[in-house]
Amino acid sequence: MQADAASTSPPPAVRRDAAWQFARMARDYWNCERKWTVRGAVLSLFVLTAAQVGLVIWVSYWHRELFDALEDRSLSEFLRLILTFLLIFALTMGVTALHMHVKRWVQLDWRRWMTSLLLDEWLSHANHYRLQFSSGEHDNPDGRIAEDIRIATEAAVGLAHSLLYSILILGSFIDILLSVSGSANLPGTEYSVPGYMVLMAFIYAGVGTIFGLLLGRPLIRTTNRLQSVE
């Protein structure tokens, strides 16, 4: 299995070179002839992502107020919270739909721009003709270029959004967990752990990440084989 993994994983130098080239193309897209439209769309994604996080935090406080109202058996407060929930629901649908629209636009526009750039480089010096005289496997280069561009652009935008969303959620809920968790005494000792719920959240996330890496690593080789066959 280790030999199989080594055969499907490029050398570190190749990965660094590919990462550098991708960063260069991302920079060129950021500074392309439509740079202000692109930058405006990216800025809109930042704002909409922050709005998504704000709505999630609002829902958490809404839940607290709801249980307080149920405990106090306050009908007026309960009805007010129902109206508040309808407002949160409407805002969430609107923000989510707008975010999806802008996100898809950035992915498609970046993909279109990168496809035009790489095809110009691919066809400019008759590389498609000279490739058949080169050694190695070069099956379906046009399809590989199109698929690699699709994966690169969609995954880059998706991962950037997920990273930003996770950082904002982490910063927001750490403060909330610290305010509600208090401290817990370690069994058999006099030591207490302040904000123990934050520590438990990090442990839970770390264990889940490790299991995700272990279970997802074979999928890399499977995906590479699938793309080669296709």
Structural features:
2 strands; two-stranded antiparallel sheet; 2 domains; mainly alpha; 230 residues; disordered N terminus
Question: What is the topology?
Answer:
Elements: H1 2-8, H2 12-30, H3 35-72, H4 75-124, H5 127-130, H6 141-181, E1 183-185, E2 192-194, H7 196-229
Antiparallel strand pairs: 1-2
Helix pairs in contact: 3-4, 3-6, 4-6, 6-7
Verbal overview:
- The protein is mainly α and 230 residues long.
- The protein folds into two domains: 15-181, no CATH class; 183-230.
- The protein is built from seven helices and two strands, in the order ααααααββα.
- The chain has helices at 2-8, 12-30, 35-72, 75-124, 127-130, 141-181, 196-229; strands at residues 183-185, 192-194.
- A two-stranded antiparallel sheet has the order 1-2.
- α3 (35-72) runs antiparallel to α4 and α3 (35-72) runs parallel beside α6.
- The longest helix is centred in the middle third of the chain and has 50 residues, at 75-124.
- Mean pLDDT is 81; it is low at 1-7.
Produce a short descriptive summary.
The chain has 230 residues and is an all-alpha fold.
